[in-house]
Design a protein that fits this description.
The protein has 153 residues and is mainly alpha-helical. The chain has helices at residues 3-15, 19-24, 29-42, 46-79, 87-117, 121-152. Mean pLDDT is 83; it is low at 16-29.
Length: 153
């Protein structure tokens, strides 16, 4: 796995970033909480915090707009279920939904890359080490769950 991929995974794990989490948080809360969490992990400078907030705010605006469009398309697709469906309309809406989903994924990855660009090498290394620790904890918890399930059978 490349360093960039590992750092992206590390960043996601460290921040607990997911589309659902962002969608459930109120306006402005998501980037503030995430910047604070990142700051606790890698000690961001004041300039880095400001830049991270700006990056997240910009990205959040783009993603939220696309999410709203995607929800409308999903509703349109759902409303077309029935005996008098329009196959061309369903396919068009589905294709557009796929493009929106791709755009959301791209914007999310671009945000991660931009965040990493603003971290020092030491901060990226710290973040990667934290992610490694979290992966190990997850592996241990999964192993414990498997053992418990084996004992119950």
């Amino acid at each position: 796995m490349t360093t960039v991929k590992r750092l992206s995974i590390a960043l996601l794990m460290a921040l607990g970033v997911s589309g659902t989490a962002l969608a459930q948080q109120g306006p402005g809360m998501a980037q503030g909480d995430q910047v604070d969490q990142l700051d606790q992990l890698v000690s961001l400078s004041a300039d880095q915090k400001k830049e991270m907030r700006e990056l997240m705010q910009d990205s959040e605006a783009k993603i939220n707009g696309k999410r709203m469009e995607a929800q409308e398309l999903q509703q349109s697709l759902s409303s077309q279920i029935g005996p008098d469906y329009d196959e061309d309309k369903i396919r068009d809406d589905a294709e557009e939904l796929g493009e929106l989903t791709g755009d959301i994924a791209a914007e999310t990855v671009l945000l991660q890359a931009r965040i990493q660009e603003n971290l020092t090498e030491e901060q990226r290394n710290t973040l990667e080490e934290r992610a490694r620790q979290q992966r190990e904890q997850m592996r241990q918890m999964q192993e414990q769950m498997r053992q418990q399930q084996g004992q119950q059978q």
